[in-house]
Amino acid sequence: MVQQQQGRVIFFCFVFFLLFDSTFEQGVSFSFAEKFALLQLRSSLGLRAKEWPVKGNPCLDWTGILCENGRVTKINISGFKRTRLGSQTPQFSIDALQNLTFLDSFNASNFALPGNIPEWLGNLASLKVLDLKSCSIIGPIPPTLGNLTSLVTLNLSNNGITGQIPSSFGQLSHLSTLDLSKNKLVGPIPASFGSLQNLTLLDMSSNFFNGAIPPDIGTLLQLKSLNLSDNSLISSIPAQLGNLSNLVDLDLSSNSLTGVVPELGGLRNLQRFTVENNGLSGSLPDALWSMPQLQLLDVSANNFTGILPNVSSVVNATGAVFNLSQNMFYGNLPSLNRRFSFLDLSGNYFEGKLPDYARSNASINSNCLQNVSSQRNVSSQRSRSECASFYSERGLSFDNFGEPNATEPLPAPKSNKKSHRNVIILAAVLGSVGLIALLLICILLLIFCTRKRGGTTQRATEVGPGPASSSPPPPPGPGVSLNFSSLGDAFTYQQILQATGEFNDANLMKHGHSGDLFRGILEGGTLIVVKRIDVNSARKEAYLSELDFFSKVSHSRLVPFMGHCLDNENENEKFLVYKYMPNGDLSSSLFRKNNSDDDSLQSLDWITRLKIAIGAAEGLSYLHHECNPPLVHRDVQASSILLDDKFEVRLGSLNEVCAQEGDSHQNRISRLLRFPQTSEQGASGTPSATCAYDVYCFGKVLLELVTGKLGISASNDASMKEWLDGTLKYISIYDKELVTNIVDPSLIIDEDLLEEVWAMAIVARSCLNPKPSRRPLMRYILKALENPLKVVREEHTSSARLRATSSRSSWNAALFGSWRSSSDVAAVPAAAAVNKLEATSSLKQSGTTGSQGSGPNGDNGHSSSTRRHSKEIFPEPHEE
């Protein structure tokens, strides 16, 4: 029916076109076949009369049409909108282009063309420019595109293209720009690319390419930009890349590259070199430091080691950014003559004194440096034992933070009778104090046990957490001036206004609790998010706390911080700038609206959901276990889990992050004595900053991924707690089928994937234990999510769960340490499991543990996934 309507439209348009042919300007000769071809294209794409008026002359009046001698040579429909009828059934329907024999440029970027690239497109021999960026294209690249031997620019980026690159691309000898980034391409990079001798830009980032980097790329002497980041490339960096003397940008980050970096001394014009997040090792070539044009060097998150060269004679490069963090560099920091915009040396093993240049515009956290505790922008260094062990393993001497080593003889103190007498007196005093303290503890324990037998113990303090605390991290002290000029870019107020369209409402993303978030775009085309903070309505020091956090912490799972604007005419407004995350946050991406005009929703598949869970766990594990002191996020929910274009997690909402409260030893004593502050409700009545609080909130995020119920992680009201109680009873270690009652119905999963869903549900329940002390650590949660089948399969769990208390070294045992075994609960058949769990969850724990009920043994004919054991393991019931 739709095709018949389109046919009628084409016919009437054609007749109408002929009737008004006399309106064309005199002297303009226009091919009859090309007139008809443009009308066909106008109809098949559903273009509006606003851009292509049917009465006008296409060569003179149609937007984006360029003609020479009455023949169409260029068509540009980039960003056009379809008519209402055309938007109902959008297709990759451009067959009419076959009749435009002089066409040399077709640009449809940002115009939806859902479908496959037609094979006949390779017959347009005169085509020089083909731009299909962000067109919703799917399917493979047809090999016939290799026939477009006149092609100069080919851009297929930001689509859903699959399969491998055709080897026929080696025939595109005139090609200058090739952009295949942000697709789903696989396989190796074709060796035939070595034939593209005119190539100046090659961008194949954010795909799934594997194998080695072809050495033949080193023969592309015209190449200025090479981007192979975010793939699965292996092997080493070929030394032939050092021949690319015109290269300006080289990005090989986020792959699996190993080996050493070759000298690359021939890259005289290189300005940006990034290889972060690989497995590269060895020392850093001196040539990288001596490149006069180099503005960005990022080698972070690798295995580089060695002593940095002394480069004091290097030509200045004002504003350069060097990131050497998360490696194994050691020795004294070198003398640097560069005027760096920012220098990140954190996460290494540098020793010695802190140079002057590193006191203001460098990050030096987690090293082995001396006398840095007085620096306001520096957090703690590595421990003495960690540094000494690193240097000892390599046969190197460690300066021991400038103090005498333990092996060196210390001067003997002078001995006299008076000193001996003082020691004896001091020992007697300390012994008396210790005895009194011991007696006091015994008395308190006796009082506690008496109250417990009388039923007056305050158990309510151990119930799950409430909403995120509004109590901020401690702000800088009065009169303290923090210098964040070296943290990211310092944007001007005019730049912020221009990027956000003067904070146009159309660019408002949401009202955050610390400021309004606006979408923006910089002059170079970089997408950003700007947080506008009103210091009158928000906490005045909130933005300073966040800036301080970013000055000390750097990790790939945190939202990339780009800069700030702290100085403007209105002193009541501050602005923080972050990298834009194309897929928003988990709360908006779990169910996304389809590209079509209908109101149907597209659900994230299970593989992506598991990937998101692992990514969020990695970020939280970094904060909890790799930062010293441990950091607590305090706002873990779906809206805080941001997703980039490949659904990689970046944690946001970092304005509430602060150091974990209290000392672990002191917390254990407090729990023993049942002080009211031991729960997650602190002395102020708000949740305290503990890692266990983050774990509880993360458990709700996992349930959101399993059940598909939106808003779980953002709510703590009574109805949500009631929903949790009703849902958790369907999660049993020994019965996989129970979990099918709560699984998101939009998920399409087979038997193997169901086991992974089951495992995530079990991890979620462990996180939601009402006792903070019995929740698993985040590093164990991460291990469990990375190995979900080991959580549920018999050979790994049948004995580990029951021996959790005696096997704490196992992540599996630590995870299931939050499940308590009841000594007199027999196994129940799957059919009765729900009723039994309901009965169990309603019990209230008193001074002694009573029976939680039992059921008959036997086989009810259920699947083998129901496990038979003499004892069932249940989580502790929620305490009233």
Describe the SSE topology.
Blueprint: H1 2-19, H2 32-45, H3 58-61, E1 65-68, E2 71-76, H4 84-88, E3 105-107, E4 129-131, E5 138-139, E6 153-155, E7 160-163, E8 177-179, E9 184-187, E10 201-203, E11 208-211, E12 225-227, E13 232-233, E14 249-251, E15 272-274, E16 281-282, H5 286-289, E17 296-298, E18 303-307, E19 320-323, E20 328-332, E21 340-344, E22 349-352, E23 362-363, E24 368-369, H6 384-393, H7 417-453, E25 489-490, H8 493-499, E26 508-511, E27 516-521, E28 527-534, H9 542-552, E29 561-565, E30 573-579, H10 586-589, E31 591-593, E32 601-603, H11 606-626, E33 631-632, E34 641-643, E35 649-651, E36 658-659, H12 664-673, H13 691-707, H14 718-728, H15 751-767, H16 778-786, H17 788-792, H18 794-797, H19 811-815, E37 819-821, H20 830-841, E38 873-875
Parallel strand pairs: 2-3, 3-4, 4-6, 5-7, 6-8, 7-9, 8-10, 9-11, 10-12, 11-13, 12-14, 14-15, 15-17, 16-18, 17-19, 18-20, 19-21, 20-22, 21-23, 22-24, 25-29
Antiparallel strand pairs: 1-2, 26-27, 27-28, 28-30, 29-30, 31-32, 33-36, 34-35, 37-38
Helix pairs in contact: 1-2, 11-13, 11-16, 13-15
